[in-house]
Amino acid sequence: MKRFLLNIIGVLFCITSFGQIHELGVFVGGSNYVGDVGKSHYLSPDDVAFGVLYKWNKSTRHSWRFSYKMASISAKDIESNAPNRKNRGFEIKNNIKEFSAGLEFNFLDFDLHQSDYVFTPYVYSGISAFVYDEIFVIGTESKIDYQHYSLAIPMIVGIKSKLTNHLVIGLESGARYTFTDNLDGSNPKNKNLETLKFGNLNNKDWYIFTGFTLTYTFGKNPCFCAHE
Fold it and tell me: For residues 132 and 147, is the Cβ–Cβ distance under 8 A?
């Protein structure tokens, strides 16, 4: 019984130690949007995006992840392949400030304390809350009405590798399915702007971040648990 209790304590200590492994870093890349104006390409990072992120690595396979990102998004009908959009000629701009929290899952074991080269593909999802400009289009250009907020579901895929004992680099791309249809001014909430609505009012807008992450790792090393 005594040995059993010692083994249980050892396992708990191991889990607690590994729970102290943290990553803090930056995201730098580009952004784009998909909606009722401009191109309909899902991967076309035309505008600048950047942010900070933190990961709490609970095991070699999964981490709790939190991030704050800022980006501008823009679109021009003249760049679309759709003739009706080209003829319309709208241009829109908006700003995104996003806080996201969720779970990152590694397809391979990613041991930050392993001495040799390690890498893994990964996916991430959770919930994002973001602030954006409620805009409307008058003439051919967008104008800001007021600032608003909404929620989105992030769907991120990426690959990462350990550069040194304390640095991890990653490349990722993530689409956000939003719960608003007015990143592009097509469906303003202001009742006085009802006559300015356009496009497919049944589809929600998307925005996408694509870029590099660089994180610094710190915390206690994991222990080696005794096995019978």
Answer: yes
Q: Interior CA angle at 106 toward 173 and 33, to 5°?
A: 15
Query: For residue 142, what are the CA distances in angstroms to 91, 134, 138?
Result: 7, 10, 6
What pLDDT, in 10s, does the model give residues 25-54? 999 999 999 999 999 888 889 999 999 999
- Range with the lowest mean pLDDT among 2-6, 110-114, 189-193? 2-6
CA distances from 189 to 133, 134, 135, 137, 170 (A): 11, 8, 9, 13, 38
Average pLDDT over residues 111-119: 82
Task: Decide if 40 contacts 185 (C-beta within 8 A).
Answer: no
Helix or strand run (H / E) with residue 168:
strand 167-178
Q: To the nearest 5 percent, what fractions of the chain are helix, strand and coil?
A: 15, 55, 30
State the pLDDT at residue 225: 45
Which residue's entry shows tokens 């396992």?
11
> CA nearest 75: which of 135, 33, 133, 137?
33
Give Cβ neighbours of residue 169 (< 8 Å, ≥ 6 apart): 160, 161, 163, 212, 213, 214
Enumerate residues 6+ apart whose C-beta is below 8 A from 73.
Answer: 31, 32, 33, 47, 93, 94, 95, 96, 183, 207
Cα separation, 200 vs 60, in Å, equals 44
Q: Where are the alpha helices (DSSP H) in 83-216?
A: 83-88
Q: Is the pLDDT of residue 12 over 60?
A: no
pTM, entire model = 0.85
Is the CB of residue 177 less than 8 Å from the CB of residue 156? no
